[in-house]
Amino acid sequence: MQTPQSLLFSPQHLWTKTTADGVWEAGITDYAQNLLGDIVFVEAPTVGARLSAGQPCGLVESVKTGSDLHALMNGVVLEINQAVIDSPEQINDHPYKAWIFKFQADNNADAEQLLSAAAYDALTDA
């Protein structure tokens, strides 16, 4: 499995990165999509919703099971990726390109609490 070095990760198997405008993108990891199997439904958080780090904010369902999306940091949802909502299999095909939502973090320094690629690999024994 691939774990891009440029991303940050949560123990709940989400990845994030900042964009050029300081907004954060979030999606599920390759490890998570592999465990879930064929993804058939994504419920993203609502635009404008408050995020609380570690708390459920959405849902991903596969043919096997469902799994909550947990917020990576405190913040506000700015955008959802409608293309992924409409075609959730994109997550299986390209998990690190198929972002699910974008958010504005309350404090960008909170990213220091997230896992590096090496720490995430150690968590998942990848």
From TrEMBL:
Keywords: Lipoyl. One of its GO terms (biological process) is glycine decarboxylation via glycine cleavage system. GO terms for cellular component: cytosol; glycine cleavage complex. Residues 23-104 form the Lipoyl-binding domain. CDD domains: GCS_H. The modification N6-lipoyllysine is found at residue 64. It comes from the Bacteria. Its cofactor is (R)-lipoate. Binds 1 lipoyl cofactor covalently. The glycine cleavage system catalyzes the degradation of glycine. The H protein shuttles the methylamine group of glycine from the P protein to the T protein. HAMAP family: GcvH (MF_00272). This is Glycine cleavage system H protein. The lineage of its organism: Bacteria, Pseudomonadati, Pseudomonadota, Betaproteobacteria, Nitrosomonadales. The gene is gcvH.
